[in-house]
Amino acid sequence: MADAQLGFRVMGTTAHVIVVADTPDAAADGIAYARARLEQLERRWSRFRPDSEISRCNAATGAPVVVHADTLRLVEHAVDGWHRTDGRFDPTVLDAVVALGYDRDFDAIDRTAPHPVTVTIPAPGCAGIVTDHVVGAVRLPPGVRVDPGGIGKGLAADLVADALMRAGARGVLVNVGGDLRVEGDAPDADGWCIAIDHPHTGATLTETRLDGGAVASTWSTQRTWGGPGGTRHHLVDPATGACATSGLAGVTVLAGRAWWAEVLAKAAFVAGPVAGPALLAHHGVTGWCTDDTGAVHPVGAVAAFASSAA
What we know:
Elements: E1 2-10, E2 13-21, H1 24-45, H2 53-58, E3 65-66, H3 69-84, H4 94-99, E4 130-132, E5 137-139, H5 152-166, E6 171-176, E7 179-184, E8 192-197, E9 204-210, E10 213-219, E11 224-225, E12 232-233, E13 248-255, H6 258-282, E14 286-291, E15 296-299
Antiparallel strand pairs: 1-2, 2-6, 3-5, 4-5, 6-7, 7-10, 8-9, 10-13, 11-12, 13-14, 14-15
């Protein structure tokens, strides 16, 4: 067997892809496919591109927009996540996020300058969003705009990993900004060993060994910028439209799919140090919730995933 790997910028973050295949050429072809596919998904989903399908849906003021099957899937999974977390995960926070100052690609934001906020905007919710598979269209109600940032990277990792395995890869790791999916054989006998970091210190909290599945982390320290009242972050409480101050600093979730791990990590963060772990337990996943004091609250079968190297 042979393996190849590559790190590159996409979706406003850093991606890292590893492909294990029968030959070096097959591994290299898998890497090339992964990069091209992630860039394609960024073109379809980015809220910062006026020509993306998501931007066209957001600008349609209630009219249906014909989109690719990728975008139908994105919107359907986002609405599903909203339902299954009782609205704690909500993709309709776009207007709230923009009002807080996250109105352009994060790399372009002046993170030291204050961004005044005149009003916070609660998320309207997903109840009126319609996906139509007959014509391949998405309809957002007037006044509803979606931000795919809370689910898109995880779903992209899933789509790429699944496609590579169907194409004959022996194993894959697709990591898009910390939302990652692994399947199949790792490059070495130790398997896929994933470090889980502490959101306060960045030090390794634990290492997990996965034969397949996904890891997603959400930290309030990941994307921050200045504001009149202090530092702001990208995690919005849908109920208020303000930056979530739940008592948690970060959440990491292990699940079968990266999009679902990402949804649950964000929902648990918004829910807080009591309801957050309860939400993860309710859905039967493993995770770590770190509160503002630095205390770590493990959830589920953390010992079963512990790496022998940890």
